[in-house]
Each structure stands twice: as C-alpha cells, then as structure tokens.
C-alpha cells in the first residue's frame, strides 16, 4: 500500500505550468558519423513538457529536459555534447546508456549453465565483468528500426561468443515519451542458445540540472524490505538481507545524505550507495509497479520509477571526482548525480537463491521501465 500511496501523492502533485524557454538542444551534427560501418545519429523526441535526445550509439539518452515547479526547463541527465566523448570517455563510461546483455556485475567473470562453464570479459578490476564486458550494449551501434516524434525503436544482435556470452541474442528496445510526462523503455529479446539476459538503462539524474549540486539532499523512497549486500569489489555475497535498522531502509522517505556517511561496512564497500534493492512486489497488482521515488525540494522535481523487474540498483554517484565535465561545461563532482536502474539481481547466474536470468530458445525476454517526471 505504501507504494500506491506515494505514487498517488506524486500524481496529485503534478502541476500545470508554461515553459519559460525552449530546450537548449545538442546539435544533431555532433553525432552524425559512422562507426564500425554503421551510421550514428542523434534523434529528438518530444511529448508534452518533456524533450529527450537519443543516439543509437549505445542507445544513450543524451539530454532530457523537464520543467521545475515554476515551469523552467532544465536538462536533468548527465551526458556529453559530442559522439567522440562517448566513444572515448575521459570519465564515467555508462552515461545514459543501455547496458548488458547482463547489466551489473558477474563475479570472477564466469558462470555455469548446466555442466558448462563460460568465461566472459573481466573488465572490472581485471577480475569481474561489469555491464557486458569491454564492448557491452553501451559500446555498439544499434539499428534504428523506426522513429517518430515521440518514440524510437532500436534493434541489435549480440552474436554468439561476443565478450564470451553464449547464443545469438536478438534484441529490440523502444524508448517512448508517453502522456503524463513519462519516459518508458520496453525491451524484448530472443536467443538460439540458453544464455543469461539482464538488460537495463543507466541514466544519471540531477534534478536541478546537470552539474547542479549534490544528490544527498534528495528525498528518496524505495519500495523494498530487503537488499543484496556486496563484498569490497561490489559482488553480492549471496545474502538477501533485511533493510530494517540499516542505512538501506528507504521505506519511509528520507534524505539520501541522512545516513550515507554512517560507519557501515556496506556503505564503505561502495563508498556510499551502489546496491541492489529487492523490490516488494504485490502479487495482486499488475506487472508495472512502483519501485522508487526521488524528490528535490528546491526545484520541485519528482521522479517516480515503475518496473516489472524484481530489483533496483541505486547508485549515488560516489566515483565522480570533478575531473570530467558534462554538456554545459560544469564539472561532474562527487555525488552530483544518481543512477536508478531497474533490473534482476547482480551476479544472478552464480547464486541459485536469486531469481534466474537464464533465457532459453523459444522464450521471449521482456522488461519494462517507466520514469515519470512530476513536480510538486
């Protein structure tokens, strides 16, 4: 009932307002190029008060303009002005990208399916696999199947053996700006060989606009009574732990910074929050259910995240250090943006007690995520 209450509160707080200016869009010419023999471009989508720019390189959301409570537009996602900055990033690699085919981490860069052990790319500390390896879904050019004013459909085949993953995985991903100031993502995939699949979107949000202040002041709610603890390299221990009495309890909304610096081993392991929450799902409700909300009192911006997945990875931007800048030239500082990734649990192939992410021939993988941008 709590998730229904807070989502209803967010919807009730949606206010009508007139934009005080037009969005300062990234020039499309900055992304007009060819990579690996495939054309890359930048596409602009608009619906209601939301304007979004997407490139088919990595399925990245480059900019996302939403109004604050006074109707003033700001670009609330972190990104870059040019394709080159995404191809050869000086800082964070996964800004606004689609990640996978297995999002998050795989411990020791290996897993078993039946009696067969698969070794995948160890791109994380030279030990583990992160977001699909050295050339994950964020580093490939997706085919643009269809595009219109409010949506874009992208496809890609992750070939058998790519980065060590088995099976030819045929994927389709649709980004849509939907009524009610929503950004909806729908994934589907099929395979010709049993393989793990856990595709996700990796946005970095700053609710006052890219490069504006700390996320520690945001008020967060996460609809989860459990989370998955991690070791010093962010690999799940296999435990599904209760959040009760810990800094990971966001069932009652409170500021992100309220407990983020407590003397807690899990917080030290991740230098803040960078964990998977096991979402409390209502079996009597539909598949799309509230996962979390984030609210900035200063701007009035409020994000409600809904999904059909069992987990949510919340990352508080602990490794930004100001050495790189975003589109507006502002430094991307420590905890100046946060990521909210709907997903299955990390390292699932190596933990029998986690929900399975194995996809078999003849099955269809589905995943829906909805970010709704409100004000109050």
- The radius of gyration is 19 Å
- Contiguous uncertain segments of 5+ residues: 1-19
Structural class assignment = mainly beta
* Spatial gap, N to C terminus: 21 Å
CATH T-level fold name: Beta-galactosidase, Chain A, domain 5
Helix content: under 10%
- Oligomeric state of this protein: single chain
CATH C-level category? Mainly Beta
Number of helical runs? Answer: 3
Overall geometry comes to globular
- Please give the number of β-strands: 29
Spatial ordering of strands, largest sheet: 12-13-14-15-29-25-24-19-22
What is the domain total for the residues? 1
Description:
There is one protein chain. This protein has 376 residues and is mostly beta strands. It is 6% helix and 38% strand. It is built from 3 helices and 29 strands. The chain has a 9-stranded antiparallel β-sheet, covered by helices on one side. Strands 18-27-26-23-20-21 form a 6-stranded antiparallel β-sheet, with no helix packed on it. The chain has a 4-stranded antiparallel β-sheet with strand order 3-4-5-6, with no helix packed on it. A hairpin with a 5-residue loop joins strand 24 and strand 25. The longest helix is centred in the N-terminal third of the chain and has 11 residues. It is globular, with a radius of gyration of 19 Å. The protein starts with a helix and ends with a strand.
């Amino acid at each position: 009932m709590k998730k229904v209450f807070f989502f209803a509160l967010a919807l009730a707080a949606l206010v009508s307002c007139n934009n005080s200016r037009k969005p300062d869009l990234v020039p499309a010419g900055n992304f007009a190029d060819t990579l690996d023999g495939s054309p890359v471009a930048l596409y602009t989508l608009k619906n209601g008060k939301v304007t979004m720019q997407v490139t088919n390189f990595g399925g990245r959301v480059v900019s996302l303009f939403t109004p604050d409570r006074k109707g003033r537009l700001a670009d609330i996602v972190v990104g870059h002005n040019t394709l080159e900055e995404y191809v050869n990033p000086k800082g964070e690699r996964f800004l606004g990208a689609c990640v996978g085919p297995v999002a998050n981490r795989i411990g020791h860069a290996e897993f078993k399916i039946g009696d067969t052990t698969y070794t995948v790319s160890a791109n994380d500390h030279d030990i583990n696999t992160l977001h699909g390896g050295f050339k994950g879904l964020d580093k490939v050019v997706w085919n643009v199947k269809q595009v219109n004013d409010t949506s874009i459909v992208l496809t890609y085949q992750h070939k058998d053996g790519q980065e060590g993953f088995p099976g030819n995985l045929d994927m389709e991903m649709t980004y849509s700006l939907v009524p009610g100031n929503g950004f909806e993502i729908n994934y589907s995939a099929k395979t010709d060989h049993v393989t793990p699949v856990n595709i996700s979107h990796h946005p970095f949000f700053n609710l006052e606009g890219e490069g504006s202040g700390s996320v520690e002041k945001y008020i967060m709610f996460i609809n989860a009574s459990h989370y998955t603890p991690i070791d010093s390299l962010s690999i799940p221990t296999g435990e599904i732990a209760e959040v009760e009495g810990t800094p990971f309890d966001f069932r009652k909304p409170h500021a992100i910074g309220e407990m983020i610096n407590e003397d807690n081993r899990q917080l030290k392991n991740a230098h803040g929050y960078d964990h998977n929450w096991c979402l409390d799902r209502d079996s009597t409700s539909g598949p799309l259910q509230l996962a979390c909300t984030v609210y900035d009192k200063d701007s009035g911006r409020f994000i409600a995240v809904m999904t059909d997945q069992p987990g949510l990875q919340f990352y508080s931007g602990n490794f930004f250090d100001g050495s790189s800048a975003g589109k507006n030239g502002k430094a991307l500082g420590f905890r100046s943006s946060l990521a909210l990734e709907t997903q299955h649990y990390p390292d699932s192939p190596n933990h029998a007690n986690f929900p399975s992410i194995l996809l078999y021939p003849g099955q269809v993988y589905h995943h829906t995520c909805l970010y709704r941008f409100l004000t109050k």
